[in-house]
Amino acid sequence: MATRILALNAVRPRPQWLRHRALRTFLRNRAAKSGIGILLLLGLAALFAGTVAPYEPLAADLDRMLLVPSRAHPLGTDELGRDLLSRIIYGARISLTLGFVSVGIGLLIGTALGALGTYRGGWADLLSMRFVDVLLSFPPVLLAICIVAVMGPSLYNAMIAIGIAQMPVYARLVRGLVLTIREQQYVEAARALGAHDSRILLRHILPNCLSPLIVQSTLQIASAILSAAALGFLGLGAQPPTPEWGAMLSKGRLYLRVAPHLTAFPGLAIFVTVLAFNLFGDGLRDALDPRMAARLGL
Amino acid sequence: MPRYLARRVTIMVPLLLGVSLIIFVLIRLIPGDPAELLASQWATAEDIALVRRAWGLDRPLPVQYGVFLGNLLRGELGRSVASGVPVSVEIAARYPSTILLAAASMGVAIAVGGTAGIISAQRPYSWWDNGAMVLALLGVSTPAFWAGLMLMLLFSVILGWLPASGMGSLRHLVLPAVTLGMAAAGIIARQTRSSMLDVFGQDYIRTARSKGVAEPAVTYRHALKNAVIPVVTIIGLQFGTLLGGSVIVESVFAWPGMGRLLVDAILVRDYPIVQAAVLLFAATFAGINLLVDLLYGLLDPRIRYD
After folding, report:
1. How is domain B94-299 classified at the CATH fold level?
2. Considering only CA atoms, which of B178, B170, B187, B173 is closest in space to residue B241?
């Protein structure tokens, strides 16, 4: 007995957690690893913005307006003499929150709509899917813009609007998943054992939707951050003086000729964050959903 | 084909009705009296009462929706609160510019994305492939407004090669079209690559190669034709994204299209313009999807509509 365990250990030189196939695939992917690295850095900067940022994000100093990057202000100062680096660091907090909250909203409503409608079938399915079709016939971003138009421009409304605009994507995805999973034998078995509908949905169907939902959500966070920044840029999202990247950029563009750093750096921050989420999401998809990855030829 | 067309159009009708219903409900959800919002800022109490009656705002909601639809079908979209000009006139002046921009961007996206995707698929896992796919990812991750401003900085402010904003000549179109097409190019490149790779794995490609068909002919005559359908689907969907993106890019380049009209209208709460512009955007998107569906039959004779 003892020798057998030893022999088994000999062919398993890797630590326990690394033997998981998905994790191994993920960790072999250099792009995905750099994505998660950037995200960790951003997350830390956002969490400890108070300590990391050299200045107060809202502290104006009219003697130091529109300074080019220097030792005192590594990314320069804006039109009110505020330190750009500090504002971008605080902006990470806003953009990350925005991404997670709006995707959370879309995920919750969309999953509920997709799962309940599909599982019930009949009218519930028909109605919920027609509703989703109608929402999908709005060009993306435009739906969010409409909702903000009604609720009024603000950071919170932008989050809600983007969440609602993302909801149909989840409803569609979950519908497809539930349709296949519903027919699996273990669901039939659970039903034969007398399990309640809600139990079957929550304990048997939804857990099996998790990995595609996680992959999709990571990519959706990237697009939510992009949309939020776009709303901020159009003046329909976060309002000044909030250090939101899109809003900063839209102020900065007024000084494009004299102080291009005001436009360049906040945009770079959005770009890097979105890229990191995309790299991470692509890596997750390859690791968690090999069939999907094979179909996309990635 | 005519029967299919009729069926597709009948599917579009409830969708557009749904869109109009959502817009109707959204506008009614705005806090405050819609009649006051529809009337101008300087309207007297009588003016507001007049607007209320004209728009049927004193009647029950389902009736109001009926009136709204009726007005819509007759092309009576009301007047802009800000300028007093009929909404239909404002929109008619702006719509072609947006379509021009979206079409030009799609042209850029198809040319760049399609080429990159084909090159990648011809040499999978090579430097070319990796480079093209990195570029595609960068295109998808770049905020359009930022890319636009950076291109403007480089090509207009620093180099002075292209005009920074406005519309007029072909040279005005270059920067906005490139900016707007960038993300779509990335997505088209990825889709082209994967569907070309799918086809390259098929038996008839091996047959063509083994009987000595030249590689370019294999790629373009045998593979591309069969790989194009999923790409066309993506192109249709990307058109929607382009229409949404035009709102942003038009604001960057002061392009006199519907997107800018919409944003300006939202900022001054000019709701008649907002509802008409949104409806037209959605209708355009629906029309393009229909066009894509019809294209399938042209591209692949095996697809029958009846």
Report:
1. MetI-like fold (1.10.3720)
2. B187
